[in-house]
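Forwarding the complex inputs:
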Amino acid sequence: MARSFTTKFRVGCNKGYKLIVLGVETSCDETAASICSNSKILSTIVSSQIIHSKFGGVVPELASREHELLLNTIVQQALEEASIDKKEIEGIAVTRGPGLAGALLAGVCFAKGLAHGLKKPIIGINHLEAHIFANFLADPNLKFPFVCLLVSGGHTQLWLVKEMNNYTLMGTSRDDAAGEAFDKGARILGLRYPGGPEIEKLGMNGNPQAVDFPRAFIKNDNLEFSFSGLKTALLYFMDSKKNKKDILLEDIAASYQQAIIDVLVIKLHQAVIEANVNSCVIAGGVAANIALRIAVESKLSTTRVLFPDLSLCTDNAAMVAFLGELYLRNGVSSAMEFDIDPNLKLA
Amino acid sequence: MSDHFTINLDSISATQNFASEMAAKIQNPCVIAMTGDLGSGKTTFTQGFARGMGIKDNVGSPTFKLVSEYKGEHLLLNHVDCYRLENEKDFFNIGGEKYLVPDGAITIIEWSEKITNVIPRDAIIIDFKRIPEKPDVRILMIEGWTP
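Prediction (whole assembly, two chains):
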């Protein structure tokens, strides 16, 4: 996909020219569609396919073939909610990677078919870049450069966002994502899925200093994360606890959560200093954790900290439509032959 | 259960070195089905295995994304994780069949106990165990492959 452009990208709308873009997102579990016009989201529909949570386990009814069945309905719903007829669509944006091959293919084939039928341009979108740009939907006054901590079930990444098309991955997890550490920790403690809110609730009145869980790489200069050792430490702690019942479960939950938060906050702080920026954004499902928010705000008291609304930082199509409109408005589109890329990189 | 052997590995690096040497000896596409509970060393093993295939990329947990694909020196690596799946139906729903007959690739499946009925007969099976008293030790029981 050639992305050459002559004008410098502007985030925000160019008044007087109405461009209606449909965004489609199917990179993993969610089938999602959204209509964006002049950088405003007119509708955003997400079918949470992972609905039923079971004790100790996660999920199913996920991904791939479900997307094919749901896409038509979800797109139709997005159009209706925005009061837009499909003939008014002037461009289509669709996630082309990274993600699950079969899932991505469902969305891209659907989008290509629609673009071909409507004779409108199409743009393949990088899911990670869309996550970064969702922050502009949350706060239109956000200015480059900023540091973005993307922290969810699948990602723990620190991005330096200098400007459009200029991203540096400052650090990432070598093994488990932070959200995964919450989920698997919850399972070890016998809690429900999703684990983040469950551990937070249980640990609310617990003592976060009760158990000294490991904080991987915390003294290192690098911005890498590792959470699999923490999960294992909890496993062995629970094994040993069977013999001594003197520590409360709520103290264990609070201590486990604190170990995750400490690492996230220290690395984020380090990244903000290294990058020499005034703003940072914490995006992704884990950003909903109140103790994390409090810890970030106290550690980065002189930095402008943004926590986008959860609906914008979990997987959604609004961010895809928004970024797609930005590209199309700047004259960038993809050739119809563009392919999915499950391992698409951003930098 | 005819040809199986057991090996005790006493550290993370021992597990990774063993996996790396095993990868270097496997020259043809195959499926490696892994069983074993949380924290028993499956992802750690896969990281070492990937290194042995000449993969430079960081190999993380595929729990959320379900499948990660990497390019090795001779073969590709499909790193599949069934933790979030319930059964074979879910596996086919994510397009899993293509990973069971890997073309020019090795497929490693974590939590393969969720999809026992579709694991190919010629697959290598590795069961991982940890011992509560010895946090660093992992015991691997391997079927369908000998060093």
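Chain B has one domain: 4-143.
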